Amino acid sequence: MDREDFLNCLCEVLELAPGSLKGDEALEDVENWTSLAVLGLMAVVDEKYNVTLAARQIAGCQTVNDLMGLVRGGGAMA
């Protein structure tokens, strides 16, 4: 999984302009980060990267980089 690809994918889920996210953003500060965004991310990650995430796993993430690490790890909790 390419870093830029993931960030752009997340921007799309959040309906943000491509390139808006750099990775170090706190999720609580990211525009449009809602429970619907979590569901959208779960669906996109499953389809695009073949990684199944649970909402509780995503809830354990504090930053965009944490989300990326979770997906890179195949959904395994660190």
Lay out the secondary structure.
Elements: H1 3-13, H2 35-49, H3 55-59, H4 64-72
Describe the protein's architecture and organization.
The protein is mainly alpha-helical. It has a single domain (3-72), classed as ACP-like (Non-ribosomal Peptide Synthetase Peptidyl Carrier Protein, Chain A). It has helices at 3-13, 35-49, 55-59, 64-72. The longest helix has 15 residues, at 35-49. The two termini are 18 Å apart. The relative contact order is 0.19. The model has no long low-confidence stretch (mean pLDDT 93).
Give a brief description.
By secondary structure, the protein is mainly α. Helix content is 51%, strand content 0%.
| Total strands | 0
CATH fold label = Non-ribosomal Peptide Synthetase Peptidyl Carrier Protein, Chain A
Q: What's the rounded overall pLDDT mean?
A: 93
CATH architecture name: Orthogonal Bundle
CATH homology group = ACP-like
Low-confidence blocks of residues: none
- The CATH class turns out to be Mainly Alpha
Count of structural domains: 1
* Main sheet: strands, sense, barrel: none
Structural class: mainly alpha
Q: What would you call the shape?
A: globular
Q: Give helix % range.
A: 40-55%
Distance between the termini: 18 Å
Helix and strand string, N-terminal first? HHHH
Percent in strands: under 5%
Radius of gyration, in Å, reads 11 Å
How would you describe this structure in keywords?
Non-ribosomal Peptide Synthetase Peptidyl Carrier Protein, Chain A; mainly alpha; 78 residues; 0% strand; single chain
